[in-house]
Every structure is written in structure tokens, then in C-alpha cells.
Amino acid sequence: MGRFLDAVLFDIDETLIDLQAAMGTTLQAVSADDLTHFTAADWEAYTSLFAADPQGHYNAYLAGRLSFADQRVLRLQHAREQAGLAPLDSDAARAWNQAYEQALPQYFRAFDDVDPLLDALEARGIAYGAVSNNVHDYQRAKLDAAGLQRIKVLVGIDTVGAAKPEPAIFHEGVRLLGSTPERTAYVGDNLQVDAVGAAGAGLLGVWLDRTGNPSPVRDERAVAPSEVPTIGSLGELLELI
């Protein structure tokens, strides 16, 4: 049974934009000569590890302990180590990061189910926007590069000085959409940070567990609590609202 909602907020990476695919293409585009032996399976494992960030370097960036560039390089070094490759020295790492940063935006693509859902929300008069655990301007450029200029409302971690799952960042998105938490849904691929976090902030938290294309941060042991519905694609959101 659907709920009456005035607004929907979205996570960006792996929810609206297929960042893991963009990362994988970019990693191959800027790869060093010592990766030429990689098979397709090697590249898949390498990209998955880089995207999943099991050592939590991105969280360290959110906590202010690492720069954005440093967290990216550390994720690369870990992926290289697990692939049996020597770490890059500081000069090589700096050059790699610059090449990666320049190439990555070329490959930002929205998932196929994004525009049809936004069309449907507009037809129903439901406002929408995005709340992301990255800085506003970086994510604004990402949305635009992926053809999602229609998403006007965007809250980044620098907007209110908070990161998901802190309530303040969700509430700022709600405020900008002119809604209230109880009449707003938040959809994201990270069960705890996105869906459970939004539910804790008083929103309808929705876990997007993409069928056939799981999030790199998905925990196979994860079970959504009863108050958090799970959808396999964005199109299924319409059944909830």
C-alpha cells in the first residue's frame, strides 16, 4: 500500500549514477603498463575492490582525516596490493590521480530507470532532489555530466557541515523541497547510511538493492528492518508512493 508523499530525495552514487561502471572504465583508461595482463575477471575484481573501499578510506575523508585525493589513492594502492602489484610511488600516484580525475567525468551515466521515474514524479506533482555524502559542487558537476540537470535541489556534506546518516543533512534536503520528513522518501543503495539513516531522521527510508547490479557497499548479510522497504529498481518506488 502506497504512502502519500510530497517529495523524494535520492542518493547519487550507485542510485542515480552508475559510478562503479564509470570507475571501472576510468581505471582501465588510465591503467599503467603493469596491468596489461589483466583479464576481464581481473578487471572486475580490481574495480569491485576499489569501489567497495573495504578499508574505509572514504569514511576517513568524511571524518576529515584524509583529503579527497588521498582517499582515492589509498583505495587504489589497496586494490593494487590485493592484485599482487607493487604500490605506486608518490610521484606516480599523483600523476595517476590527476589522470583519473580528468577522465572520470567522461563516463558518468545515469541508470536507465532514472529519467522514467523522474518523469513519473513530475507527472504526479512530487518534488525531488538529491542528498549526497560528497561536496555540493563536485556532485553538481557529476549530475550535469550524466545528463541530470533537471535535478535542481542538491545537498552536499559542505551544505550543512554534516554527512549521512546524520539527520541534519536529510532535513536540509526536505526543507529545500518544501516538504516535511514524514512526507518525504529517501532512496539510496547503502542500507545503513541511506535507508536506515533516513528512517532515523523521520523520512521514509527506502533501500535500493538493484536486482542483478548490487551496490559495491552491499553486505550480503544485511537485512532491512521492517520499517525500511526494499526495491530492486527505481521503477518500483512508484508502488510505495
Compact summary:
It holds the Pfam family Hydrolase. The protein is an alpha/beta fold and about 240 residues long.
Description:
This protein has 241 residues and is an alpha/beta fold. The protein folds into 2 domains: 7-18 and 109-239, 3-Layer(aba) Sandwich (Rossmann fold); 19-107, DNA polymerase, domain 1 (Orthogonal Bundle). 43% of the residues lie in helices and 10% in strands. It has 10 helices and 6 strands; from the N terminus they run βααααααβαβααβαββ. The protein has helices at 19-29, 40-52, 57-62, 68-82, 90-103, 114-123, 136-145, 157-160, 167-176, 191-200; strands spanning 7-10, 127-131, 153-155, 184-188, 204-208, 230-231. A 6-stranded parallel β-sheet has the order 3-2-1-4-5-6, with helices on both faces. Helix 10 links the parallel strand 4 and strand 5. Helix 1 crosses helix 2 (40-52). The mean pLDDT is 95. InterPro entries: HAD-like_hydrolase (IPR051400), HAD-like_sf (IPR036412), HAD-SF_hydro_IA (IPR006439), HAD_sf (IPR023214). One of its GO terms (molecular function) is hydrolase activity. Its cofactor is Mg(2+). This is HAD family hydrolase. It holds the Pfam family Hydrolase.
